[in-house]
């Protein structure tokens, strides 16, 4: 019964957000952003509500939702580590650091650790190409990321 109440609350709040934003020009992205801001992710059960409100097919909404990497279908961890996967960072050793991050954190891309401590996500350019490889931890950019910094980050997010 408690789970049903939580789902009803999510749907009710989602409908409020959708109604606030559906008259905006090109409302789909603002609505998805609003849902993610409110819940920390876009609950899958809200996508049909969005489709219905905007007179779009569920496939259209799902296609936009899955196209953009920043939208989540489940809550993120307490910390979010994004590692740049763009060419400049790759050329400066980013591939090895990315593989090491997966190893150190024990999660794959787009996953959250079992303890909810950290979510690992790829990002495709932070605009720090001159300071490659780059990463972002909880919204703070990190340039010239190296193995030592990565190990410190892995320890920090586990606290």
Automatic annotation (TrEMBL):
Pfam families: 2Fe-2S_thioredx
Organism: Phyllobacterium salinisoli
SUPFAM superfamilies named in the record: Thioredoxin-like
Keywords: 2Fe-2S, Iron, Iron-sulfur, Metal-binding
Cofactor: how and how many bound: Binds 1 [2Fe-2S] cluster.
Catalytic activity: a quinone + NADH + 5 H(+)(in) = a quinol + NAD(+) + 4 H(+)(out)
InterPro entries named among the record's database cross-references: NADP_DH_HndA-like, NuoE-like, NuoE_N, Thioredoxin-like_sf
Gene Ontology molecular functions: 2 iron, 2 sulfur cluster binding; metal ion binding; oxidoreductase activity
Protein name: Formate dehydrogenase subunit gamma
Binding-site residues for [2Fe-2S] cluster, renumbered to this chain: 84, 89, 125, 129
UniProt KW Iron-sulfur keyword: yes
Cofactor: [2Fe-2S] cluster
């Amino acid at each position: 019964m408690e789970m049903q109440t939580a789902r009803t609350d999510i749907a009710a709040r989602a409908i409020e957000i959708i109604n606030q934003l559906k008259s905006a020009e090109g409302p789909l992205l603002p609505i998805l952003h609003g849902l993610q801001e409110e819940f920390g992710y876009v609950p899958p059960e809200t996508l049909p509500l969005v489709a219905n409100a905007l007179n779009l097919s569920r496939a259209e909404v799902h296609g936009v939702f899955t196209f953009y990497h920043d939208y989540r279908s489940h809550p993120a961890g307490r910390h979010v580590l994004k590692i740049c996967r763009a060419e400049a960072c790759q050329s400066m050793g980013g591939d090895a650091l990315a593989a090491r991050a997966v190893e150190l954190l024990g999660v794959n891309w787009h996953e959250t650790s079992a303890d909810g401590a950290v979510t690992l996500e790829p990002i495709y350019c932070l605009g720090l190409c001159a300071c490659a490889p780059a990463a972002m931890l909880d919204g703070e950019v990190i340039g010239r990321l190296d193995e030592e910094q990565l190990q410190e980050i892995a320890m920090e997010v586990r606290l």
